[in-house]
Amino acid sequence: MPQTLPSHAQTVIIGGGSIGCNTAYHLTKLGMTDVVVLERDQLTSGTTWHAAGLIVAGLLKSEAECEIYTHGRDLYARLEQETGLPTGFRDVGYLQIASNAERLHEMRRLAPFMRRHGINIHEISPQETAALFPIGDLSDILAGFYIPEDGRANPVDVTMSLAKGARMGGARIFENTAVTEILVENGTATGVRTATGETITAETVVVCGGMWSRQLGAKAGINLPLQAAEHYYLITEKIAGLSRDLPVLEDPSTYTYYREEVGGLMLGLFEPGAAPWKLDGIPEDFAFGEIEPDWDRVGPHLERAYSRVPSALNVGVRKLFCGPESFTPDLAPLVGPTPELRNCYVACGMNSLGILNGAGTGKVLAQWIVDGVPPVDVTAINVNRFTKNEATRAFRRDRGPELLGKMFGQHYHNESFRTARNVKRSVLHDRLKAAGAWFGESHSWELPDWFAPTPEQAQVERYSWFRQNWFDWHAAEHRAAREDVILMDMSSMSKFSIEGRDACALLSRLSCNDVDVEPGRVTYTAWVNERGGFEADLTVTRLAADKYVVVVGENSHGHTEMRMRRHIGADECVVITDITPGITQINIHGPKARLLMEKVSSADLSNDAFPFMTAQEIDVGYFNVLALRVTYVGELGWELHVPSLHAVQVYDLLMAAGQEFGLRNAGMQTLGSLRLEKAYRDFGVDIDNTDNPIEAGLGFAVKLDKPGGFIGRDALAAIKAQGVPKTRMLQFLLKDPEPLLYGNELIYLNGQEVGHLQVGAYGHTLGGAVAIGFAETDAPLTAEIVDTGDWEIDVAGERIKAVASLKPLFDPKMERVKC
């Protein structure tokens, strides 16, 4: 008997694929029974039905990725016992192969980290690899990496089993019920309208519409940058003797995965130069659909795929399948509450990993909806990380072809996307390029990574996990910061003007530190959630009784703005203005910074007149700029907020005046090495929403007794009351000057594994690789244990002796900063 569409539900989920059914299932597990799933056609009819069903770990580089993955693998393995419907999961095993030294080194770096987080990955010999995958030509490989518990599942079976589990928990699922509109009232999602004109009001609306999500969201003003692309796999005819339990094999050198399929072999392509599909919008009636294969375009990629299994050429082709999958600009999903609408959440843009990561993502989103706080680090997947630029047709057209190959190819720590560039450029860009800048990209900003002696030399000769050709040039920038003076274009830093009668009340409520200070004071502070987990770390500068400037990293732009706007009270008067486009931020740092600034300004820049953590408007040549005496590199200096109209002139003046002081341009590599020598933290890189300021060593910026308190005050007070933490963020310096650190390397204390590094760089002043990371012990991690312990860091399987410290190893007394 057909179900009747309800007029109201606690939660309405749009989309009945893997993500929608996973979200519904996990919501019911948390006790939310009034859940409605609306599927425009039939369950799985979008892209779920043609997924390859791989349940394999790949290379996972964060705790959150590991947790999301392992939850799904474990759930699919046991779900049939709960629902009575099979998932088709079989743990046939998973092989990744390394056919060059760089890939081998990368795998050896990440394997210990993945093992630490529940993934049983181990290096095996070429001979062992060949024995596990006898159909392949593995004569060129250096090693394999094997996970016996990984495997494959049937995507349709998985989804149907999840749907039944959701129904068992009280959810109702309606097929052939297309949602045409998200209902909105006063900036809040209030329900949905279907194609038949029926409406369902809801307390929460969740968009899980797969590749249709962008166009549906756009109708409600929601920014969801994702684009469908052609995605291919080839299935051969049956191959005699091919085992049904053949492990899944992944080969980055051919951009292909291989697995058994009904007695034949599936060759799945993640080819470079993929083709975007339907840039102007996905057809609403596309269901269980295929795309006509472009044999001419995909032919060379198939030839490369066959080179790994040449014997497969001896059998025919059963099917060359081409179907759409949706991809995001940075290859991470879009998950979480939308900044545009209250009570609206999304989970989409799974980058062809909807089965693999669907369960973990559904669990994360369900807990986020029910608890109001996500259970894992979501800084990399939070939907609020993008601006509208990345959703434009031109951006999706240009970035799309790079995405599939980027997923499967070899990766390097400093390699940026090559397409859809120059979206956000400082007005100083051309000056920096002429000065020899090599630019990387972060959140669509063009950032000078390092400077070569001439523009012609500004090239990466060869990406590597070892020293690259620019290493010595970067070292010279670093030395200039410590010995002379550097200039850094930090225009990418997000800057917000906060004005109005209740500006102080809003920022005080958000900030752990005291921001109700005299005008002209700069306050470093964390923002935390109700559980004490970080939401931001930033500076808040008071310019007047009712006016502040907030400065935060480019990776936190959307999240910071959203958090401020969501916490303005109904009766409060606060105006938030994003002033980033109008302000060029020029940082001047180094022991000769004051000498340089005194040459171009008539202001009194002495320590008495302009002390650390204060702000003044000063003249620089013909121009007036806001100067903040702060540092993120551990040296004397100023952060100059220059109106972009005058920025080129100010830059030219500073460069000319600074020649006698050894002034150099410096890039992001140098910013990283300088700040890590000083052990400065960075939200979204080495601290996240699952960490708290007490354990992260930022308790000095938490004022538990400030009037009025702040969001998360009680949680932090409880953590503080426990005494010396068992988990603490420490700084590490390798005693061997040769190895490099990047992050995810394991930490050992007295021979026991106690944590992993968050981020690393080379400390040219300290004389070795330096990093910060959390160490966790059974007992309180006291200063004595830190100072006297035998510390080691695992670098690609080799343990390197290290020095650990609670205080910065460079200038722990802040003498250079406050001079």
Automatic annotation (TrEMBL):
Residues 371-426 form the FAD dependent oxidoreductase central domain. It comes from the Bacteria. Keywords: Oxidoreductase. The keyword Plastid does not apply. InterPro entries: FAD-dep_OxRdtase, FAD/NAD-bd_sf, FAO_M, GcvT/YgfZ/DmdA, GcvT/YgfZ_C, GcvT_C, GCVT_N, TrmE/GcvT-like. Residues 428-706 form the GCVT N-terminal domain. Residues 12-368 form the FAD dependent oxidoreductase domain. Residues 728-811 form the Aminomethyltransferase C-terminal domain. It holds the Pfam family DAO. Belongs to the GcvT family. This is FAD-dependent oxidoreductase. The lineage of its organism: Bacteria, Pseudomonadati, Pseudomonadota, Alphaproteobacteria, Rhodobacterales.
